[in-house]
Amino acid sequence: MKMSFRWYGEGNDQVSLDDIREIPGVETVVWSLHHKQAGEEWTQPEIDAEVAKITSTSPEDTARGVTKKLNAEVVESVNVHESIKLGKDILGVTRDEAIHNYQTAITRLGRAGVKVICYNFMPVFDWLRTDMFHTLPDGSTALFFEKKVVDELTPESLIASMEGHIDGLTLPGWEPERLASFEEIRAAYKGVTREDMYTNYKYFLDAVVPYAEEAGIRLGVHPDDPAFDIFGWPRVVSRKADLARVLSLNDSPANSLTLCLGSFGSNPDSDPVDAVKTFMDRIVFSHVRNIKHFPNGDFTEAGHRVTEGSIDTVGIMRAYADADYRGYIRPDHGRHIWDENTTKRAELRPGYGLYDRALGTQYLLGCWDTERRVLGRPLETGALNTGR
Ligand code: DNO
Q1: Over residues 298-308, mean pLDDT
Q2: Domain ranges of the chain
Q3: Is the C or the N end of the chain the one with fewer CB within 10 Å?
Q4: pLDDT per residue over 122-172, tens digit each?
Q5: Residue 210: CB within 6 Å of ligand 1?
Q6: Is the CB of 291 under 6 A from ligand 1?
Q7: Distance CA 166, CA 161 (A)
Q8: How far apart are CA 102 and CA 82, in angstroms?
Q9: Which atom of ligand 1 is nearest to the CA of 122?
Q10: For residue 141, what are the β-bridge partners?
């Protein structure tokens, strides 16, 4: 297992690469070219420059004895253009052009040493919450989903409130340019069925998977978040049967899963540990986090510890450790704690503070190490960091 940590890039994240390097056991940075719109070309120089930034240490650090190197093996995400999901040209982009740019991005990322590309296939929106700073009983804050708000609001008013909260930051899938084209996208989804989505999904996979195989890359789809339909749009990567169907659309190991257990587990009918065990061979990347369900359909994000929420994070890590999982794992959607709720609030990217995600890595590694030790197997992650 390789422990990783998401980073939004220089000038776009309050967390630095130096911060990440100092977290024990974390060696992989999960990155993207966040200024790219879905469907746009990723050039080799842009990719290489970002990878060089992540994998190098400054001359000053080298001089003072810093030897730990980070790698840039996971990209989250190369976003899929709506023309691909809809199977028709939209927003001035043809499906073929969007697919061509996706194929090229895969090839170029492979050349730069990337091993996994995460993406999602959600219509219109990426992830969705109704409150970014919901206060928990201990005073920390976390992302929150209030079912009544989503049931009662229109997509437009939800967008307005999201924009208000994110305050100039760009969240993946919520780029201002895309929001501006919302009406066109909304009209294009009228009448689109789940079957249409799977047909278009297969067309996409058949077109890009050979490029991934050639590049030594595995594509991992991220489940819908939350994992149920919203505003009547067809979401096709929500439940266990959906994941199985997506995998069956193309049998190559390059067509795999980014199993985000918080997203998958946001549907209270789903069983995260069972999904890990069922899909183990086709999981290339996993987001392990906790959420707590309430009887009225609301849920809050929570600390990673198993007792904090409804997701069996211990059972998940045991399943990975038992199966000798070789893929990447990252913590996700940390709470905002300490000065992230005061002096650092203004620059904070909701769900992506430093502290609680760092605590999350240590909890997950603790579960992993304990299970591996009990099984008498190597711990396999995070070289000792004490020099000599
Ligand atoms: C939210 C993230 C998602 C995820 C995409 C993958 O915090 O987990 O935005 O990156 O859905 O494409």
Answers
A1: 98
A2: 2-385
A3: C
A4: 998 888 888 899 999 999 999 999 999 888 877 777 677 666 655 444 455
A5: no
A6: no
A7: 9
A8: 13
A9: 11
A10: 135, 336
- Residue 167's contacts (CB-CB under 8 Å, 6 or more residues apart) are 346
Q: Whose CA is nearest to atom 1 of ligand 1?
A: 127
2-385 classified as CATH 3.20.20.150:
yes
Do you know the residue count of the chain? 388
Tally: H helices and E strands in the chain: 15, 12
Q: Which candidate, 149, 137, 143, 183, places its Cα nearest to that of 165?
A: 143
Does the pLDDT of residue 76 top 50, yes or no? yes
Does ligand 1 lie within 6 Å of residue 301's CB atom?
no
| pTM of structure | 0.96
| Pair of tokens at residue 230 | 């919203």
In sequence order, what are the residues at sequence separation of 6 or more whose Cβ sits closer than 8 angstroms to the Cβ of residue 364? 3, 288, 304, 313, 317, 329, 331
DSSP secondary structure code for residue 153 in this structure: S
Atom of ligand 1 nearest to the CA of 6: 10
Distance CA 5, CA 23 (A): 9
